[in-house]
Amino acid sequence: MDWTRSIDIYCERTDPAFWSEPVNALTNLAFIAAALWGAWTLHRRRHGAEAGPDTPAASPTGTPTDAGAVALIVLAALIGIGSFLFHTFATVWSGLADVIPIWLFVALYTILVVARLSRRHPLVVALPVLLAFAALVLATRWLLLLAGLAGAPQSPDPLNGSAQYAPALVALYGFAALLMTRRHPLGRWLAAAAAVFTLSLVFRTLDRSLCPALPLGVHFLWHLLNGAMIALLLQGFLRNTTLFRP
Are 16 and 6 in contact (CB under 8 A)? Predict the structure, then answer.
């Protein structure tokens, strides 16, 4: 595989130059902002300063999910860094730097939420959660193929690559519905994040088809909205962690 092969899949890019996508590149600051807000919230939680209807008082022995929360915050920042690299270098290796942090965040967030809901250690639920998510990915892919919304390899993609995020969207709506049914405060945060993610997927899907009318494209809105979604996910988790004490 040629790791340095150039990739041009967005309206804004017109050549292989580093700054060919300045708007797409710089809007990744939304993820850095989400990570910084999360770090500030965690800091306040540790010192008992973050209070509200969704935030129980901090435990004298410390927040039990500090390690997981820190990992999520770091991954949120890495999502922004990886996407910045992809929209500047635009190569195969930078494409991996773009997608790997996203899926690590999705996997870790799901594991931590299930662990808190079930009052089990994250390592205990990690394998079942990953297997369940793998099954969801396969089922979603099969349904999209049946519906003609996901092309086979080497064929045109009617969703412009957005189908890969369908399992995450389904899981997000599923968790939101489950928690809202239980009247758990995290459910509202997840529902808001799911709504924002749906809108961001619309813009990601439409980007290339709008190139003739909008040379800049709308992919930058995917970044801004996903930054908002990550912020909602982090804040929902950080403000409700003590509710998931093992």
Answer: yes
